[in-house]
Amino acid sequence: MLNSLTTAFKLDELRSKLLFTLAMLFLFRVGAHIPVPGINPEAFANLLTKGQLLGFFDVISGGAFKNASIFAMSITPYINASIIMQLLTVVIPHLEKLAKEGEEGRKKITQYTRYFTAVLAFVQAIGMTMALKGALVNPSVLNYLTVAITFTAGTVLLMWIGEQITEKGIGNGISLLIFTGIVSRIPSAMVNIGQYLKAGTINILSILVLLIIGTLVIAAVIYVQEGQRRIPVQYAKRVVGRRVYGGQTSHLPLKVNQAGVIPIIFASSLLMFPGQIASWFHGNAVADWYLRWFAWGGVLNSVLYALLIVGFTYFYTAVIMNPVDMAENIKKYGGFIPGLRPGRSTAEYIGKVMSRITLAGAVFLALIAILPNVILALTRIPNVYFGGTALLIVVGVALDTMKQIESHLLMRSYQGFLK
């Protein structure tokens, strides 16, 4: 791997892409330590004591949330806007038409997503600022607007950085920003574990159990992320002019985890709002009842969290993978699945296969999401934010980035990471 990296830096084009990516990620890390004017960072950091969900958001932002920096909201509004736009593409005919127009249509949808991100970020920033009125140095209307606009500008800047990495660098920019934020928290997490060990809160056995669980989770994530169900597809021979096309056997790859980490983000966002609103009304009977029975990390909350993830996995997979369109595309190019008639029978078969493998992927995502609660029960190490979801993101982004570097090296007849 080190030899491949050395070879990659010898190529002018690939070296410039890698250096540009590193420069943009460095800019992200610098911005994560620039505080927002008008906020008391210590009061803002107290939010992390209210549950593991906010701690997980702090991990994704690379500590920017805890530092009350300009990147405190991270890239989450852009992710939510992208998900909503994908769903609207299926519902709104105009967007569906744009999606089928090729590159120009996708550019327009991307532009709509940018505008929607800015609006969504500003709304979220207003809500966050209102919730943080106790942390504001001067709770005036002008200060509220200043803080909200600063949060919004930070998210928009992150969106621009991610798009620049995707266009001029290596890998998916948005994914690499989340990856960098998570990885940057590893040193501080190790320091915290060392302090717990020194204080006698935990012992060596707890750390060994944590390492074993982490290793098993990484292996499981790689296995599921790379897992595919390959449906054989036979293409008939076609004569066009003097040339003969088709006649070969191919396959239709269906990934086990087609939805990625999106269902977890969906479910966590949905569960976050009731708990956050209830926390503002301490003393109210209904709010106290909800916080007592549906506290983050509790049994009922974990069960509801897992069920929502399973449901969103099926929903999102159905949105991005349409068996009818897949069957029509196979038929369009003269292909067929052996033993099945083209058209409706093929679509029903693909839908049945997708339903089965999606169940495995959905259960895996649900187990990954509630893993921090399991780790806390087994190791007694508090505040384990670097759980299964973080590992899922880190491993998935690392695999995709390595594959992109591999493809660049193979195009120039160099040996890459994968053999």
Quick structural summary:
This protein has helices at 2-10, 12-31, 41-45, 52-60, 76-91, 93-99, 103-131, 141-168, 173-183, 186-199, 204-225, 262-279, 285-293, 299-320, 323-332, 344-369, 371-379, 388-411, and strands at residues 228-235, 238-240, 243-245, 249-255, 335-336.
What does this protein look like?
It is found in: Cell membrane; Membrane. Belongs to the SecY/SEC61-alpha family. Keywords: Cell membrane, Membrane, Protein transport, Translocation, Transmembrane, Transmembrane helix, Transport. The chain crosses the membrane at residues 75-95, 115-136, 142-162, 174-196, 202-224, 260-281, 293-316, 357-378, 384-402. By secondary structure, the chain is mainly α. It has 2 domains: 1-185 and 386-419, SecY subunit domain (Preprotein translocase SecY subunit); 201-384, SecY subunit domain (Preprotein translocase SecY subunit, Orthogonal Bundle), CATH 1.10.3370.10. Helix content is 69%, strand content 5%. The chain contains 18 helices and 5 strands. It has helices spanning 2-10, 12-31, 41-45, 52-60, 76-91, 93-99, 103-131, 141-168, 173-183, 186-199, 204-225, 262-279, 285-293, 299-320, 323-332, 344-369, 371-379, 388-411; strands at residues 228-235, 238-240, 243-245, 249-255, 335-336. The longest helix has 29 residues, at 103-131. The radius of gyration is 24 Å and the shape is globular. The model has no long low-confidence stretch (mean pLDDT 79).
